[in-house]
User: Which sequence fits this backbone?
């Protein structure tokens, strides 16, 4: 027969098992409720999402497609865009070298470019007339005057309509063999400038004056002396190492 202590242990185990089953039962009760709540939230959110997607679709459908109208007559392009429900502004373009071969009244640029915009948006059309075309033919690109004498370079650039500022360049060893008053560099550099360099713009010229020439010669001599000294030191160190090494018998 089970003793009183055994009976108490059995009661405790039975109590623990009962609690576990009770907790599990509560979990299984909560799961259906949670699923039901999530389903209700999803059902309520679905119309909102559908409405948002519908608005996006309607917005995209309302956009107007602008074609590329470059090289088209400005009057025809303007009438076409106005027929699409857009506002149009025609602007006479400024002379540029690339417009030299354009035709009178031709669209040479537009903003925004081809794409989709809202109805009523403003589109700017830039066109050329005979005056702009003739002026574009006379546009001369900024020449590279490096290597020229500073006086000749300054005279040429000022004749082309540029403003010129001159500056002595800082001494460097590589300038020791350069002719005095020679242009070493210029800013902006005509080979590196993406934007067109317009007349009236300031061009900076950096040239080698006599003081920079003399200083460059001193720097070159110092560099050569240092190189010779380093070579001599290296040779002496190599000789010392050879003396320290044992002589190999052939």
Assistant:
């Amino acid at each position: 027969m089970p003793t009183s202590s055994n009976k108490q242990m059995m009661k405790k185990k039975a109590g623990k098992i009962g609690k576990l089953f009770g907790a599990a039962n509560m979990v299984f009760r909560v799961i259906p409720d949670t699923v039901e709540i999530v389903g209700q939230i999803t059902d309520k959110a679905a119309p909102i999402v559908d409405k948002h997607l519908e608005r996006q679709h309607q917005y995209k459908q309302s956009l107007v497609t602008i074609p590329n109208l470059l090289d088209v007559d400005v009057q025809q392009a303007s009438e076409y865009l106005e027929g699409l429900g857009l506002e149009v502004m025609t602007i006479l373009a400024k002379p540029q070298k690339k417009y030299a071969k354009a035709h009178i009244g031709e669209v040479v640029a537009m903003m925004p470019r081809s794409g989709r915009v809202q109805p009523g948006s403003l589109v700017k059309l830039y066109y050329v007339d005979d005056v702009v075309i003739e002026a574009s033919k006379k546009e001369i690109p900024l020449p590279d005057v490096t290597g020229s004498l500073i006086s000749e370079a300054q005279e040429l650039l000022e004749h082309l309509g540029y403003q010129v500022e001159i500056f002595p360049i800082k001494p460097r060893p590589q300038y020791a063999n350069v002719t005095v008053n020679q242009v070493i560099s210029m800013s902006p550099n005509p080979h590196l400038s993406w934007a067109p360099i317009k007349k009236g713009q300031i061009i900076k010229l950096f040239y080698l004056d006599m003081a920079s020439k003399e200083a460059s010669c001193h720097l070159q001599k110092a560099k050569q002396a240092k190189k010779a000294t380093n070579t001599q030191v290296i040779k002496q160190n190599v000789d010392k190492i050879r003396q320290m090494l044992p002589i190999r018998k052939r």
Q: What stands out?
A: The first helix runs from residue 4 to 62. The helical segments are 4-62, 74-83, 130-137, 150-159, 210-244.
